[in-house]
Amino acid sequence: MRIQFRLLIWGLLLILLNLMNLLPSLVAKIGKKELAGISYLIFSPFCHQISSRSFHLWEVQLAVCCRCTGIYLGLLLGIIFFIIFSPKISQLALVPILIMVGDGLANWLGLVSSPSWLRFTLGLGFGFVGGWLLGTGFSQLEALKEKKWQTRNIT
Amino acid sequence: MANQKYYLKIFLLVGLGIGILSSAPILSLGNCCCLWSIAGGIFSAWLLCRWAEEPVDYGQGTLVGLFSGLVGGIIFSFFKALSFYLNPSSLKYSLEQSFEFRGMEPPPELEQFLEQLTSALAHPLWIVLITSFFSLLIFAIMTTLGGVLGVLIFEPRFAVKRTMKKTPQPTVSETKPTPPEPSEKTELYFPRKEKEEE
Asked: Do strands A56-57 and A60-61 pair parallel, antiparallel, or not at all (unpaired)?
C-alpha cells in the first residue's frame, strides 16, 4: 500500500503540472489574463512555446506546445495505468520513445512537418511509456529501501 | 549495495552538467522538450551501469536520475534567481515577452498585478521561488525517466560484461606447468654430478 501511496503523490504532482499547462486558458476564462504570464514563464526554459505548434483553448494558447502537452498528459496516464495494473516493463517500451525521437529529429531537420495532432499523439505515447517507467522505477526504489532496512536490522 | 559508493559522484557530476547546460545562454536552447534533463538521466544510468559491480535495477536508476535532476534543478534555479536578483526589471520584461511572443498584447493590468503580487508576497523573490519549484519538479521527473530508461537500455549489455569479468578464465600456467630451464643454476648440491664431471 505504501508503494501506491508514494506513486499517488507523484500522480498528484503530475496533475499539478497538467493544470499549470491549462492555467492560461483557465485564468483567461475568469478574466485574470495577467496570471497566465507566470505559467508561460515557468515552462519557457523547457518548451519552445511556438504559437502555431500549440493548442489553443478558449482562444488562449496553452503554456506548452502540442508535443509537451502530450508528454505531460501521457506521464499522468502512464502512472495511473501502472497504479491500476502494475505490468512489467520490457524493451518493447522503447518503440514509442524511438518513434517520437525520430519524428522530432525529422521535424528539426526540416524533412517533414508533422501536424499538431500527430505531435500530440506521439508525445502522448512517449509520456505514457514514461509514466509506466516512472511507476516501475519508484516501486523498485521502494523495494530497494526495504531491502536496505532488512540488511541493517540483521547486522 | 556495493553500487552505493558511486551514487554521490554521479549526482554531482551529472547534476552539475545538467545545471550548467540548462543555464548557459546558447546551450540552454537544447533544453527544449527537456532534452538535457532526459539525456542527463540516461547518462547517469549509463555511468552507474558501467561502474557497478552488482546488477543494477530500475530502482537504482530511479535514484541516480532523481537526485541528478534535483542537483541540476537547484543549480538552474540558482542561476535563474541570480539573474532576477541582479536585474529585477528582467522579471517584468520576461512576463511581457511571454505575451508578446504569442502575438498577444500584454494586458494593461499586468503592471498592477505585479505590484499587487509583490505587495502580497512581500518580495518578488516569491515568484522566483514558485517558478523554481516547478523547474525542480520538471527536472526531477524528466531525469528520473531518463535514469530508468538508461537502465532499460544499458543494463543488459553491461550485465553480460560483468558476468564475463567475474567468470575466471583458465590461464596457460594453470593448465600446463612450465618446467625449469635446463641451464638454470640452482643452489642444490649434487655430489654424484660433480664426480661425473671430474
From this structure: antiparallel
Q: For residue B172, is pLDDT > 50?
A: yes
Helix axes B125-166, A94-108, angle to 10 degrees: 120
Residue A142 C-alpha, separation from nearest chain B C-alpha, in angstroms: 7
pLDDT digits (tens, 9 = 90+) for A74-111: 999 999 888 888 788 877 888 888 888 888 888 888 88
With CB atoms and an 8 Å threshold, state whether B31 touches A97. Answer: no
Cell of B71: 542537483
Nearest-by-Cβ selection for A41 from B59, B113, B131: B131
Domain assignment present for residue B4? The answer is yes
Number of domains in chain B: 1
Range of the domain at B8: 1-73+142-167
Is residue B146 situated within a structural domain?
A: yes
Q: CA–CA separation, A111 vs A97, rounded Å?
A: 19
What pLDDT, on a 0 to 100 scale, did the predictor assign at position B35? 83
Residue pairs spanning A and B at CB distance below 8 A: 124
CB-based contact A42 B134, cutoff 8 Å:
yes
ipTM score here? 0.85
Q: What is the DSSP letter of B103?
A: T
**pTM of the predicted structure, to 2 decimals:** 0.79
Taking contacts as CB-CB distances below 8 angstroms, the residues of chain A near B138 are: 17, 46
